[in-house]
Amino acid sequence: MIQSIPTKSGARDQLMSDLKSVIQDAETWLRNGGTLTGEELQAAKAKFERTISSAKADLIRLEEQVVEKTKEAVRATDEYVHENPWQAIGVGAAAGLLIGLLISRR
Hints:
3 helices, about 85% helix, mainly alpha, disordered N terminus, about 110 residues
């Protein structure tokens, strides 16, 4: 039912690492762009494009993981509400009452 997904923190760490690399590459490219020769400029551009592609892929993976976890939470909530309708109504009423009290105090 649930497939093996890399941990969210691992994907987030990889994404942050890739984004740091993108920033470092961009800074290096901007700083040295005027002094780079044709070959060096092409190599820097290719490295920059690879890093951006990697960051995009990591971002897409992280987004897919978040969407999947959200869908799982929605399914679990829906199942709970269908199995325990009166408890769900009670929790909703209590939450509404609490929010109403907090708003009226302002």
